[in-house]
Design a protein that fits this description.
Length: about 190
């Protein structure tokens, strides 16, 4: 947990530095809910496994990049790609291997009120260390509902995006519950 707090502090520090560096740019809308062009964000992610997955893995750490593409007023299409490393537990004196995933998702982000959003995404999660984890599939369907808040940090449209989500995959092993399920937090800097 201390590592997560350190990472969050680093992201906030980076956002503050970027705000200072970009304060002299031409001002545009500070609203993150109006479609004024594609918005990009880079973030750190962490979370805790749930369901059966919590019996074999402790927590995850990763990162992602996302593009929000305006579709209509307060509605964006999203494209997201990232990396998640789930740290294995030691069970009966055996250290279980980490699970390393590369999720690629697309979806929609809707702002029902200013700066608060509801987001849903789906796509594919690629298992990067299939041989280490003894799975018979290297790709699974992934889906993730999320809620969050975007905080404007500059007149040029930069923002901090803080979201919490539930994410689940389909099975990586045929006829065995091998789903990766977790509740995660994404803290990102958007521009």
């Amino acid at each position: 947990m201390k590592s997560t707090l350190k990472i969050a502090a680093l992201v906030l520090a980076f956002a503050g530095l970027s705000y200072s560096a970009k304060a002299q740019t031409t001002p545009t809308s500070t609203s993150t809910t109006t479609p004024s062009g594609i918005r990009y964000s880079i973030g750190v992610e962490t979370g805790v496994p749930v369901s059966n997955f919590k019996d074999s893995h402790k927590w995850n750490l990763g990162g992602s990049v996302q593009a929000d593409i305006p579709v209509a007023s307060q509605l964006f299409a999203t494209v997201n790609a990232g990396f998640n490393n789930f740290f294995g537990k030691t069970v009966a004196d055996v250290k279980l291997p980490n699970v390393q995933l590369l999720p690629v998702k697309a979806g929609l982000k809707f702002f029902p009120v200013a700066n608060f959003y509801i987001q849903g995404e789906a796509g594919a999660a690629f298992l990067l260390n299939k041989a280490d984890t003894y799975n018979d599939k290297s790709t699974a369907f992934v889906w993730a509902p999320q809620i969050g808040v975007q905080f404007p940090v500059s007149a040029s449209g930069n923002f901090i995006d803080a979201g919490i989500r539930y994410e689940s995959t389909s099975n990586y092993v045929t006829n065995i519950d091998s789903k990766v399920k977790f509740v995660g937090l994404r803290l990102a800097y958007g521009f």
